[in-house]
Amino acid sequence: MPLVTSTKMFQDAYAGGYAIGAFNVNNMEIIQGIVDAAKEEKSPLILQVSAGARKYASPIYLRKLVEAAVEDSGLNIVLHLDHGEDFEICKMCIDDGFTSVMIDGSKHPFEENIALTKKVVEYAHAKGVVVEAELGKLAGIEDDVNVSEKDAAFTDPDQAAEFVERTGVDSLAIAIGTSHGAYKFKGEPRLDFQRLETITKLLPNTPLVLHGASTVLPEFVELCNKYGGNIPGAQGVPEDMIRQAAQLGVCKVNIDTDLRLAMTAAIRKVFMESPSEFDPRKYLGPGRTAIKKMVQHKIRNVLGSSNRL
Ligand SMILES: O=C(CO)COP(=O)(O)O
Ligand SMILES: O=C[C@H](O)COP(=O)(O)O
Ligand SMILES: [Zn+2]
Ligand SMILES: [Zn+2]
C-alpha cells in the first residue's frame, strides 16, 4: 500500500459526516502508536509533520519511519506537512514524497495569502499533491474579546469562498475559536458554529480543517500532575464540539496536544513508580501504548472514522 492523497478520504468523510484524524508525529514510538490504533480501527489516517518535527527528528528519519509504517501496516496513509510557512518548505516536502502540504499564509494580508497559496497549489497539483491553506487567525479568543475583534480574527465566510475559488486549494483551515496547545479557553469553551455553518453553505463540498482540536482530557492532565507534572488550568475543545464540527463539513481534525499529554502521563508514571528503571524501552514502550489508546479513543468515539477503509 502506498502513501495516498486525502482527496477520496475527504469526499467519503464529508458525505458520511465523520472526520479524519491528522496526528502530529515526531519519533518512532509516536508513529507506531498512531498507526497501530488506525490499523485496529480500520480507519483512514493522516500523519502530519511540522517544521519543528523535521528539525527535531530530521526530515529523512521521519519520512523513512512513515514509509516503514505504510509497508508494515498495509494501510493507506497521507503524509502531510503541517503549517508550512513558505513556498520553499512546501516544495521541499512535495519533492520529498509528501502527498499533502499545508501552506499557512494566514499571517499575511488576504491578497498575499492568496498569491502564496496559489503558487503552492500550482506546484503541488502538477505533482499530484494536495494542498491545505488557512484563512483567519487561530489564536485563542478570550471571553472578554469584543465582537469586532472576534470578527477580525475568525474566518470571514465570504472571504473563504473567494479564497477557495481563486486559489483552487483542496481544503481550508478555518478559525472559529480553537487554538493550539493545552490552554484554549479561560472560561466556558465556545466555538462559533454559526460561522462554520455559513462557511459550509457558501463552500459546499469543500473539506474544512480544524486546527487546535485537542480536547485536553482532564484525566490526562490530572495524571501528568499526579506524577510530578505542573500543568494547571489546561482546557481544550470538548469532544461533543468535535463531533458537531464533523457534521458541518470539517473533514480533518488536527491533534497533537492530546498525544503529548497521554505520552507524558505514561512516562511520568514509570519514572515515579520505578525510579530504578533506566532502560528507555521501559518508559517509551508505555508512552507508545498510551498514544495508541488515545488515538483509538479519538477514532472510535470522537471522529467516527472506524471501519471506513
Ligand atoms: O492544530 C494542531 C496541529 O496543526 C494541533 O492542535 P492541538 O494543539 O489542539 O493538538
Ligand atoms: O500546530 C502545531 C503542532 O502542534 C506542532 O507543534 P510543533 O511546532 O511544536 O511541532
Ligand atoms: Zn495558522
Ligand atoms: Zn495547527
From TrEMBL:
It holds the Pfam family F_bP_aldolase. One of its GO terms (biological process) is fructose 1,6-bisphosphate metabolic process. It catalyses: beta-D-fructose 1,6-bisphosphate = D-glyceraldehyde 3-phosphate + dihydroxyacetone phosphate. Zn(2+) 2 binds at D104, E134. Pathway: Carbohydrate degradation; glycolysis; D-glyceraldehyde 3-phosphate and glycerone phosphate from D-glucose: step 4/4. The active site is at D82. GO terms for molecular function: fructose-bisphosphate aldolase activity; zinc ion binding. Keywords: Glycolysis, Lyase, Metal-binding, Zinc. Its EC number is 4.1.2.13. This is Fructose-bisphosphate aldolase. It comes from Geosporobacter ferrireducens. The lineage of its organism: Bacteria, Bacillati, Bacillota, Clostridia, Peptostreptococcales.
